[in-house]
Description:
Blueprint: H1 15-22, H2 26-30, E1 34-38, E2 43-48, H3 61-78, E3 84-95, E4 103-113, E5 117-125, E6 131-143
Amino acid sequence: MTDPTLPFAGSSAPGPDYIRQRGLGALAGRMGIEMTEFTRERAVATMPVEGNTQPLMLLHGGAYVVLGETLGSMHANFLAPEGRVAVGVDVNATHTGSATSGLVTGVCTPIKLGRSLAVHEIVISDERGSRCSTVRITNFYKRIA
């Protein structure tokens, strides 16, 4: 297990090593989220629809939010200023389509990276490339005691 008090960003660790060290967390594991790309410019992950549906057999709206928040929080922590850790202060989602099978893919890109806040947009698409949801997350860079 990694010491949660270590400064994460500013490190020269490549993205995949960072993910292996930190892990994605128990919820992301239960939902089947897998990171496929992780760089300073963006983070990409997939999540299966199966097992994450609501009663109408559509991907649950909350599942989109979990995928988006996982990507945005991990990326914000990776880029956090030394001596700070990213903590979520706002997350919202607009669902514009429905996934019913296969995998969805989330592509996370920073909108604004400041000294105290990071804002990321996560576009989540189905296997046909149709946008299903857009998630935006704001993280506050909290000083580590």
